[in-house]
Design goal:
The complex is a heterodimer of chains A (135) and B (135). By secondary structure, chain A is mainly beta. In chain A, strand 5 (81-86) and strand 6 form a beta hairpin. Chain A has one helix spanning 64-73, and strands spanning 10-13, 16-17, 22-35, 46-60, 81-86, 95-109, 117-124, 131-134. In chain A, 7% of the residues lie in helices and 50% in strands. Chain B has one domain (3-133): STM4215-like (2-Layer Sandwich). A 5-stranded mixed beta sheet of chain B has the order 1-2-3-5-4. In chain B, a hairpin with a 7-residue loop joins strand 2 and strand 3. In chain B, helix 2 packs antiparallel against helix 3 (74-88). The radius of gyration of chain B is 15 Å and the shape is elongated. Classes of the chains: A mainly beta (135), B alpha+beta (135). The A-B interface holds A 7, 9, 19-23, 59-60, 113, 115 and B 55-58, 60, 101-102, 104, 131.
């Protein structure tokens, strides 16, 4: 057991590897709640309802045909696809996560004196939520 | 060797600039240190900071170089600096194995020193930020 950095992240969207130029990938799992407090309660209590999740990615864009291919691969679409990530790479035994998701946001940022970045967001659309296995 | 490739690219863009070499009277452009008595005006460049960014799995380098004109008069130093600026600011260096996507002038340099005989030597130039991307 030891700390590790994100340098070995493996990231696959609809079968296309999109990890060559990433800076930050952040998958989030969360749950909706309802307020269950009532009567003489002095503190709020909650019940969990539906689980939800989303993921965001920031990457550096590329110019030329490589950039166009990457741009096309991260287009928002009404069709869900598989988002897969391996935080430690894809060596045998490394953790592997995958989930059905919708790519909902593609937001480039053009900065005069900086590299062009694009932010991408997914909304999980998977009745089972993210699945954990190993490579 | 990214350092060698970058410095070759920097030297080449300066030494092939005819306006600059005509003003200097030759390719009086030196890396780090000029030889003894190179002439009344010449150019010296040297690494001043930076290195690998390690922001994405794709390799990028962000370095700054001091590029300055050295001359026996302030006017000559300023003229050569103007030509260096034209050759470098927002221009593209050819760096073998890399793509130069950002070159820009930042902080100015402007001072005078005296040699052992009390003769003034004028320095005018600037810090240039150079960013390259591994092909």
């Amino acid at each position: 057991m030891a700390e590790y950095t994100g340098k070995d992240l493996y990231l696959l969207w609809k079968g296309t590897s999109i990890d060559a130029h990433y800076r930050t990938f952040s998958p989030t799992e969360e749950g909706d709640t309802v307020d269950a407090s009532a009567g003489a309660d002095t503190h709020r209590t909650y019940l969990m309802t539906l689980l939800d999740g989303n993921a965001s990615l920031t990457m550096v864009m590329q110019d030329g045909t490589a950039g166009t291919a990457l741009w096309d691969a991260i287009a928002p679409s009404t069709t869900a696809g598989t988002l897969e990530w391996g935080p430690e790479g894809t060596a045998s035994g490394d953790p592997r996560y995958h989930v059905q998701a919708l790519l909902t946001t593609r937001n480039p940022s053009y900065t005069y004196d900086g590299v062009t970045e694009v932010n991408i967001e997914w909304a999980y659309s998977d009745s089972d939520g993210p699945t954990f296995t190993t490579y | 060797m990214p350092v060698q490739a970058l410095e070759t690219g920097l030297y080449t863009i300066l030494s092939t600039n005819s306006a600059l070499t005509t003003e200097l009277g030759g390719t009086l452009i030196y890396n780090k240190q000029a030889p003894q008595d190179p002439g009344t005006k010449y150019v010296v460049f040297n690494w001043s900071g930076g290195g690998d960014e390690n922001l994405t799995p794709h390799r990028t380098r962000n370095v700054v170089y001091t590029v300055q004109a050295v001359a026996s008069t302030q006017a000559d130093a300023a003229t050569v600096d103007r030509l260096i600026d034209a050759a470098l600011h927002e221009q593209t260096l050819t760096v073998s194995g890399w793509t130069n996507f950002w070159t820009a002038r930042e902080d100015d340099i402007n001072y005078v020193e005296q040699d052992a005989g009390g003769v003034p030597i004028y320095h005018v130039g600037a810090i240039y930020r150079i960013r390259i991307d591994d092909d």
